[in-house]
Design a protein that fits this description.
The protein has about 80 residues and is α/β, with parallel strands linked by helices. About 30% of the residues lie in helices and about 25% in strands. It is built from 3 helices and 5 strands; from the N terminus they run βββαβαβα. The chain has helices at about 35-45, 55-65, 80-85, and strands spanning about 1-5, 25-30, 30, 50-55, 75. The strands form 2 sheets. Strands 1-4-5 form a 3-stranded parallel sheet, covered by helices on one side. The chain has a two-stranded antiparallel ribbon with strand order 2-3. It is globular, with a radius of gyration of 13 Å.
Protein backbone atom coordinates (compact mmCIF):
# COMPACT_ATOMS: atom_id res chain seq x y z
CA UNK A 1 0.00 0.00 0.00
CA UNK A 2 1.13 3.55 -0.71
CA UNK A 3 0.38 6.87 0.97
CA UNK A 4 0.48 10.36 -0.50
CA UNK A 5 0.86 13.27 1.89
CA UNK A 6 -0.12 16.61 0.40
CA UNK A 7 1.96 19.27 2.15
CA UNK A 8 2.65 21.96 -0.45
CA UNK A 9 0.49 24.84 0.75
CA UNK A 10 1.23 27.85 2.92
CA UNK A 11 -0.99 27.00 5.85
CA UNK A 12 -2.70 30.38 5.57
CA UNK A 13 -5.30 29.54 8.20
CA UNK A 14 -2.48 28.91 10.67
CA UNK A 15 -0.77 32.27 10.24
CA UNK A 16 1.16 33.82 11.89
CA UNK A 17 2.56 30.46 13.07
CA UNK A 18 3.40 29.34 9.53
CA UNK A 19 5.35 32.44 8.58
CA UNK A 20 8.53 30.96 10.10
CA UNK A 21 7.95 27.20 9.94
CA UNK A 22 6.21 24.72 7.66
CA UNK A 23 2.66 23.96 8.82
CA UNK A 24 3.37 20.24 9.28
CA UNK A 25 6.37 21.02 11.50
CA UNK A 26 4.18 22.75 14.05
CA UNK A 27 3.99 20.79 17.28
CA UNK A 28 0.74 19.61 18.80
CA UNK A 29 1.08 17.93 22.17
CA UNK A 30 4.86 17.77 21.85
CA UNK A 31 4.90 16.09 18.44
CA UNK A 32 4.99 17.54 14.92
CA UNK A 33 1.95 17.17 12.71
CA UNK A 34 3.99 15.42 10.01
CA UNK A 35 5.48 13.13 12.66
CA UNK A 36 1.99 12.11 13.76
CA UNK A 37 0.99 11.35 10.17
CA UNK A 38 4.12 9.34 9.34
CA UNK A 39 4.13 7.45 12.64
CA UNK A 40 0.51 6.44 12.01
CA UNK A 41 1.41 5.18 8.54
CA UNK A 42 4.35 3.19 9.93
CA UNK A 43 2.10 1.65 12.60
CA UNK A 44 -0.07 0.34 9.76
CA UNK A 45 2.97 -0.97 7.83
CA UNK A 46 2.65 1.67 5.12
CA UNK A 47 6.23 2.50 4.20
CA UNK A 48 5.83 3.59 0.58
CA UNK A 49 5.26 7.30 1.15
CA UNK A 50 5.08 10.08 -1.43
CA UNK A 51 5.41 13.56 0.03
CA UNK A 52 4.23 16.51 -2.07
CA UNK A 53 6.05 19.66 -1.01
CA UNK A 54 6.02 23.29 -2.08
CA UNK A 55 6.18 26.03 0.56
CA UNK A 56 9.38 25.64 2.63
CA UNK A 57 10.10 22.39 0.76
CA UNK A 58 13.74 22.11 1.84
CA UNK A 59 12.82 22.44 5.51
CA UNK A 60 10.18 19.72 5.33
CA UNK A 61 12.29 17.36 3.21
CA UNK A 62 15.25 17.70 5.58
CA UNK A 63 13.07 16.97 8.59
CA UNK A 64 11.46 13.79 7.26
CA UNK A 65 14.66 12.34 5.79
CA UNK A 66 16.59 12.96 9.01
CA UNK A 67 13.80 11.85 11.35
CA UNK A 68 12.88 8.76 9.32
CA UNK A 69 16.08 7.47 7.65
CA UNK A 70 14.58 3.99 7.28
CA UNK A 71 11.95 5.26 4.84
CA UNK A 72 12.79 6.04 1.25
CA UNK A 73 10.41 8.93 0.63
CA UNK A 74 9.32 9.87 -2.87
CA UNK A 75 9.52 13.65 -2.80
CA UNK A 76 7.49 15.54 -5.39
CA UNK A 77 7.90 19.31 -5.33
CA UNK A 78 4.98 21.35 -6.58
CA UNK A 79 6.86 24.38 -7.85
CA UNK A 80 3.54 26.09 -8.66
CA UNK A 81 2.24 25.87 -5.08
CA UNK A 82 1.83 29.66 -4.93
CA UNK A 83 -0.62 29.52 -7.83
CA UNK A 84 -2.35 26.21 -7.21
CA UNK A 85 -2.20 25.86 -3.42
Amino acid sequence: MQAIILAAGFGNRMKPLTETIHKTLLEVGGKTIIGRIIDSLIEHSILDITLVTGYRADELTAYVTQRYPEISFHIVENVRYRETN
